[in-house]
Write a structure and sequence with these properties.
With 720 residues, the protein is mostly helical. 84% of the residues lie in helices and 0% in strands. Helix 3 packs parallel to helix 5, helix 5 packs across helix 17 and helix 7 runs antiparallel to helix 8.
Length: 720
């Protein structure tokens, strides 16, 4: 590469080698998992039904998104062409968009299928020992983590090697492709999983009084499928695009630094490569710790091990290569931010701590007090999350205070780079959750022996905590990534020089619109879950009225519930995607770049607070229910238990649909703003035809909201 030193050239090829190592490690783990015992034929048939439902959903989703991807590929080409970029860059941006979308889809699809394969093997291993079950479950999740690391690092590094200093223009397409797919997989998977979960719980647990994964419940297979398409495929795509986006913003800001130097761009890539190696070491060590059957403790120790390896390595790299301690301080702060979110989220969602126990205790006086206490816990948790992020950003301000705003924003991007350097660990912990949950469900559906069920219940409880923690990290990384993109937007539009004055009415209008959109987006997604869950409730009730089902003599029609959830999730996606993509375009071209800057600030602020509130409140409600089910306050079947089920049902769409969906929504809007920023600067006046297109875009946004509110996915009368 032009201008690169021998060390930098060798380092870049070494980064490519590390990316391939991560993919090879994932392949080896997959071979090891697939060689394990799959259990009885009954267990295998349940796993096959889950796999069929999950793959049918993803195939349907990908087919539905193909036309939109084709249209946006053209849009990505035009966004570069209208900004007077060379033809090669315009074509490369469109191609990178396709590559980012395909990589994101591959991470979700392959990771989800390995989760399905891993869950039945965890159930079989639980008949032997806790250690075997933990090792298989965690390593099955690690496959998704290594795919995220490997493909994210591979794509970003290849683009940089080929395009050099022009790479950020191409990487915008790569990041947008991954982010857009993550939005659809997060929203669709979230609607699917919570429609099945809420519907199954309301009828099964509350009305009929049967266990969660009882085979008599028609929605039980759909519920297990939903764990995979929502928590596994959706989360993997979500963190994958954060992984991409932080690289994009770091490179854009690195190129804007003065004096210019290639080290500002190469350093983040080398940091990511170090993170992959430390993640491989940490994830492999999980099953080796003597933690006395404490699965979460084993994962936590391994995360700390990876953090220690990375921190020392970052220090050495900053000293011997960059010769600047500040880059080490920023990336190390990112690691501390991830650890802080790990501990903080556990504090508000783990049954060992006071907030969850307060919710459980409030269940003794009914569902209303359970919900009120959960709301209070969620709101309080948002405050502490905001303060942790504030400290991280303020740390960057202190580190680069003497070097100017661009350096400060670059420092924020490095915080995000450091925070996501252990993406392999984060995704492994998250994917472990649905794997353990599915294994527990398979155990209940097939009537496995009590000793094995106890092991799977313990793994499932640990999985609930890891899912809550990784949701917290995903939200924090989304905010840091969005702030980095916001800095890139300010740099691209020149607002850094002119200033973003919130006393300007247009800027303030933009901020109000941006702040309102996360609320609208959450309203639409929660309403979607409510309507779809209503369809599942009616279907499960209908099937319970069929003679023989409740007595266990007749098998329910599981496929019907799977079909309802699949259609419910798919029909909602286009409207929500339209809202996310077109809103910043409308604000930017009608109110110009100052208002668009305010718009982005409003989205980041309100979106972060709302996402944390929903994720933590939902996680706390869920674990309060499980705390009671473990024998506290009367245990299963008691009145406090029924109240806690209601609270958990309210929290389900918050923590698994609306809250997580805000992460990619925030980044989609920031990326769209960054993509159109050069066009805004280059074209101060628009031809009359452009205003017609803006009018059509405005109508499309209004239509998408109306479409969703009218019940976009209601089944036709002949199918209901």
């Amino acid at each position: 590469m032009e201008g690169a030193t021998a060390f930098e050239s060798a380092g870049l090829w070494g980064v490519l080698g590390v990316a391939m190592l991560a993919l090879l490690y994932a392949f080896q783990l997959a071979r090891g998992i697939l060689s394990q015992d799959k259990g009885t034929s009954t267990m295998q048939s349940v796993a096959q039904a889950i796999g069929r439902g999950a793959n049918a959903y993803l195939r349907s989703q990908f087919r539905g998104l193909a036309p939109l991807i084709a249209v946006l590929t053209v849009g990505l080409y035009l966004s570069a062409s209208l900004a007077a970029q060379p033809l090669s860059i315009s074509l490369a941006r469109a191609g990178a968009f396709l590559m980012g979308a395909c990589f994101s889809a591959a991470v979700g699809y392959l990771g989800m299928n390995m989760a399905v394969q891993g869950s039945v093997r965890v159930a079989a291993a639980a008949r032997r020992s806790f250690g075997d079950a933990l090792r298989i479950g965690y390593r099955a999740g690690t496959i998704t983590g290594m795919l995220t690391d490997g493909l994210g690092l591979l794509g970003g590094t290849l683009i940089f090697i080929v395009f050099g200093r022009a790479a950020p223009e191409v990487l915008l397409g790569f990041g947008f492709g991954g982010t857009l797919l993550a939005l659809f997989m997060r929203v669709g998977g979230g609607i699917y999983t919570k429609a099945a979960d809420v519907g199954a719980d309301l009828v099964g647990k509350i009305e009929v009084g049967i266990p969660e994964d009882d085979p008599r419940n028609a929605a039980v297979i759909a519920d297990l499928v939903g764990d995979n398409v929502g928590d596994c495929a959706g989360m993997a795509a979500d963190i994958f695009e954060s992984y991409e986006v932080t690289i994009v913003s770091a490179m854009i800001l690195g190129l804007a630094l003065n004096p210019p130097d290639l080290k500002w761009i190469v350093f983040p890539l080398l940091v990511r490569a170090i993170g992959v190696i430390s993640s491989i070491i940490g994830t492999y060590a999980v099953s080796l710790w003597p933690t006395r059957e404490d699965a979460f403790r084993a994962m936590d120790i391994s995360y700390d091990l990876s953090s220690a390896i990375s921190t020392v390595s970052f220090c050495l790299l900053a000293h011997f290569y960059v010769h600047d301690w500040r880059v080490f301080a920023a990336t190390a702060m990112g690691i501390l931010l991830a650890i802080a979110f790990n501990k903080y989220t556990a504090r508000f969602t783990h049954p060992a701590f006071r907030p969850v126990r307060e919710i459980a205790q409030s269940s003794r006086t009914g569902a209303a007090t359970n919900i009120l206490t959960g709301l209070a816990v969620g709101y309080e948790s948002s405050v502490w999350a905001a303060l942790i992020i504030v400290l991280a950003i303020f740390g960057s301000v202190l580190i680069y205070a003497q070097s100017g705003v661009t350096f400060v924003l670059y420092g924020v991007a490095l915080v995000g780079i450091g925070m996501l350097s252990h993406t392999g660990n984060n995704v492994s912990m998250d994917a472990f959750g649905p794997i353990a949950d599915n294994a527990n469900g398979i155990g209940e559906l097939t009537g496995m022996e009590p000793a094995a069920r106890r092991i799977m219940a313990e793994l499932d409880a640990a999985g609930n905590t890891t899912k809550a923690i990784t949701k917290g990290i995903a939200i924090a990384s989304a905010v840091i990534a969005a702030v980095s993109l916001f800095g890139s937007f300010v740099e691209t539009t020149g607002l850094q020089r002119s200033g973003l004055d919130i006393a300007n009415p247009l800027v303030f209008i933009g901020m109000l619109i941006g702040g309102a959109l996360p609320l609208l987006f959450s309203s639409l997604t929660i309403r979607s879950v409510g309507r779809a869950a209503g369809l599942i409730v009616e279907e499960v009730r209908r099937q319970f009225r069929i003679p023989g089902i409740l007595e266990g003599r007749v098998q329910p029609d599981y496929e019907r519930a799977v079909l309802i959830c699949t259609r419910a999730a798919q029909r909602e996606l286009v409207g929500l995607g339209t809202l996310a993509v077109l809103s910043p375009v409308l604000v930017g071209f009608t109110l110009r770049e100052g208002a668009l800057g305010g718009f982005l600030a409003g989205i980041i602020l309100v979106g972060q607070l709302l996402a944390v509130f929903m994720a933590n409140a939902g996680g706390a409600w869920d674990n309060a229910k499980k705390y009671i089910e473990d024998g506290q306050h009367g245990g299963k079947g008691s009145e406090p238990h029924k109240a806690s089920v209601v609270g958990d049902t309210v929290g389900d769409p918050l923590k698994d649909t609306a809250g997580p969906a805000l992460n990619p929504m925030i980044k989609v809007m920031n990326l769209v703003a960054l993509l159109i920023a050069p066009v805004l600067v280059a074209h101060r006046t628009l031809p009359w035809g452009a205003y017609l297109l803006l009018g059509a875009a405005g109508l499309a946004v209004l239509a998408s909201v109306w479409y969703s509110k009218q019940g976009a996915f209601a089944l036709p009368d002949n199918e209901s």
